[in-house]
Specification:
The structure is a homodimer.
Chain A (H helix, E strand, L loop, with lengths): L4 H8 L3 H9 L6 H14 L5 H6 L6 E6 L5 H16 L3 E6 L4 H13 L4 E4 L8 H9 L2 E5 L8 E4 L1 H14 L5 E5 L6 H16 L8 E2 L9 H8 L7 E4 L2 H13 L9 E6 L12 E4 L2 H16 L9 E4 L2 E3 L8 H4 L1 H11 L2
Parallel strand pairs in A: 1-2, 1-3, 3-4, 4-5, 5-11, 6-7, 6-8, 8-9, 9-10
Antiparallel strand pairs in A: 10-12
Helix pairs in contact in A: 1-2, 1-3, 5-12, 8-9
Chain A binds a DNA duplex through helix 2 and helix 4.
DNA sequence: ATGAAAGCGCTAACAA
DNA sequence: TTGTTAGCGCTTTCAT
């Protein structure tokens, strides 16, 4: 294994060039020679070092993947999709996570670039205004964005605006009028903004007034009391929450339950991501689903197309279809009106 | 960026050797020279190609990670832990997943080895009988196993036997006597066997008869009718289920609910993994927790120790402490006895 | 303190 | 068809 092409050449009694050819262009070498070389390769358990090839300026067969985090299954699922195709096609993946930090995004890209990856698949905080991406556009490597829904750069995503619009429409259709949007770590991201825009449009179109997104630190795993109060008290309290991702929705759901609010009777909840696990909740979380595995695979294919030079210039941003999973966390507004009965039910659950 | 050490040398007016020294051993070069070289480096935005270094036989600063899947957050969390330390220490991670397939395990290891990784962190299906690991011991890169609980090789895990024992003890303490163990894809893995052994020991110690683990394909996302029947009907039906992982537990929980079984009143459930998401269920899943991030970090540290030559021979298998998260899915057996009331409750929920 | 040169494993002209 | 040779970018003797 630690043997080199030289060893094989010596063992087989030919030059290293012949060995190289035997490996890379078998048809150009005499069958008998070929056989001998192969024998030697087997005997020495030789496998050509990618390093030599890579340095030689050949294709490195290395793809860099930059993700915010793996703690969110969304990205783990994307990565899974990428990995499927990558390993099937003999590429190696180099992974870096950024924790949504611009500094780390820069570092990751530079590291990967230094490693001479042939391409990059990335999810960044903000795709439109990212100077790094301009640099990549300028002198490579080629990249495809994932989950960054932008028209200006090659990307695979869903139409976040439309998806949020559809979801909020559904809430409105169920009779909700006081709908609040909750956003997590993504608050500063392009996705969050687009989702909020979709929410706002749906609200306005129904003659309702959109509110700014309420930012939640969902790593805290506990809902802040002030937030909870905001959600649960007062005559203007929302009857439905649109959460910018499922993890957040799950945390909120739990927080509400602890405050003796019933979901969906006292509060409807709509998530975003369509995580497999969130469907296992009781009731299953209603959520706008993004085809994560497919997004990963699709990003891979686009990247390969770009690398192969068959890049279709016109369609920069590819939006895959989103789905609307109607779980059990959306109630028609009628059932919310009866504060009295909700009250009763609540106390019956109490401790 | 695409500039080489040569360009820098030319630009600075020194030889490439001096540039190399300026980078790797600044103190050995004249301060004035150093300044000039650095200037050139900045001007050309030069960063040394890892490829050259790697080929030169230097350290590649590359670590391979081999995991069964990323669809299970357990591994995503481990990877997250690894990545934290790796990027902090300037290492690059090369990732491959195996889908629990021995063939792919082999392929992954060979690929990574060919890439000249300095070390390997892996989770394999069966650590004890794995011929590949013997090869690695012989002349592979150094490795550390993760979540493979074996005494024979360097590994970081929990004591699966003990953990399962503790968990099942708790079920028994709650009065359960007919406890069944359910296993998923891991059925063939060393972990699953150890967990089953722990289950069996706890059962026997309480004078109960352990049953073979019931194998469930939890990728199906639906419980097979035959399985469901097995769990829910007959006088010998179990009152508690010990699931070999949380994902499985979640699927089972949902399946039971659909069959109008209440958790925990009609069936207690104990999971394994302690996933963050499973705690967001209602009720929160009782689960034996493994410190995944910590396992990842710990595996990293052991690997670094081995690579650095400070390997502590004696303690091959490191078992991190597991936790027992007592969620809401375990009921004392008394409440199960009243089949009548359960029946009533069930029908009141019906459709 | 600096430079010249060899070589890591490999591929691709170019020769024979 | 096969061999010779020149690098790819870098580090590292060994000279100077």
């Amino acid at each position: 294994m630690t043997s080199t092409i030289k060893d094989v050449a010596a063992h087989a009694g030919f030059s290293i060039a012949t060995v190289s050819r035997a490996i890379n262009a078998p048809h150009t070498v005499n069958p008998v020679t070929l056989a001998r070389v192969r024998e030697a390769i087997d005997a020495l358990k030789f496998s050509p070092s990618p390093l030599g090839r890579q340095l030689r300026g050949e294709r490195t067969r290395l793809i860099g993947v930059v993700l915010p985090t793996l703690a969110n299954p969304v990205f783990a699922e994307c990565l899974q999709g990428i990995d499927e195709l990558a390993s099937a096609q003999g590429f190696r993946l180099m992974l870096m996570t950024t924790q949504y930090d611009a500094q780390r995004e820069r570092h990751a890209i530079e590291t990967l670039r230094a490693q001479r990856v042939e391409g990059l698949i990335l999810t960044v905080a903000d795709a439109d205004t990212h100077p790094l991406l301009d640099e990549l556009d300028a002198d490579g490597p080629l990249y495809v964005l994932m989950h960054n829904d932008t028209k200006r750069r090659p990307s695979v995503s869903v139409d976040n605006h439309q998806a949020a619009f559809d979801g909020v429409r559904t809430l409105i259709t169920h009779g909700h009028r006081r709908i609040l949007m909750l956003a997590g770590t993504l608050a500063a991201s392009d996705r969050a903004r687009q989702r909020h825009a979709g929410y706002a449009q749906a609200m306005r179109q129904a003659g309702l007034t959109p509110a700014p997104a309420l930012e939640i630190d969902f790593n805290a795993a506990e809902l802040a009391p002030s937030v909870l109060a905001h959600l649960t008290t007062g005559p203007q309290r929302p009857t439905a929450l649109f959460c910018s991702n499922d993890l957040l929705a799950m945390v909120v759901m739990r927080g509400l339950r602890r405050a003796r609010m019933r979901v969906p009777q006292d509060m409807s909840i709509l998530g975003f991501d369509g995580l497999a696990v969130s469907e296992l909740l009781a009731p299953p979380l209603a959520s706008i689903g993004t085809p994560n595995g497919e997004i990963g695979r699709s990003a891979w294919q686009r990247l390969m197309a770009r690398i192969g030079g068959e890049y279709s210039g016109p369609s920069l941003g590819l939006a895959l279809p989103h789905t609307l999973r109607e779980g059990g966390t959306i109630a028609a507004i009628a059932s919310v009106a009866h504060a009295g009965s909700a009250q009763r039910a609540r106390s019956s659950i109490a401790s």
